[in-house]
Fold this sequence. Notes:
Blueprint: H1 17-38, E1 60-61, H2 62-69, H3 73-86, E2 89-94, E3 97-105, H4 107-131, H5 133-148
Antiparallel strand pairs: 1-3, 2-3
Helix pairs in contact: 1-4, 2-3, 4-5
Amino acid sequence: xxxxxxxxxxxxxxxxxxxxxxxxxxxxxxxxxxxxxxxxxxxxxxxxxxxxxxxxxxxxxxxxxxxxxxxxxxxxxxxxxxxxxxxxxxxxxxxxxxxxxxxxxxxxxxxxxxxxxxxxxxxxxxxxxxxxxxxxxxxxxxxxxxxxxx
Length: 150
């Protein structure tokens, strides 16, 4: 016998921390993206823009970016190619290994990163103002503790 849909027990959806974190993450990303588009960096709101957050002052070997980002080497290759074409990053020869390429920011990329940092601080300031300084500090600490949990 086939059960009808109305005979199947349906659990109720619960409100939970994962949902709250997801909603806030989406809200934060929407605010960040809108501000970056307004500053002329729409490319940073797309998948290739994620690479910028993984580059350090001296750059990162392209081969390491896939592991850092949790994506395939092919995806990194495509993203880096797109950013090179935009003039945001460049590939330079690794002084320690001539076969390896370091991906580093150009002047244009460094300016975009500076703008991104400013936007992040503006959003953070709004959140701090909404919660109050001590509550915001407690939130940061709690998030760090949860991340470090095993």
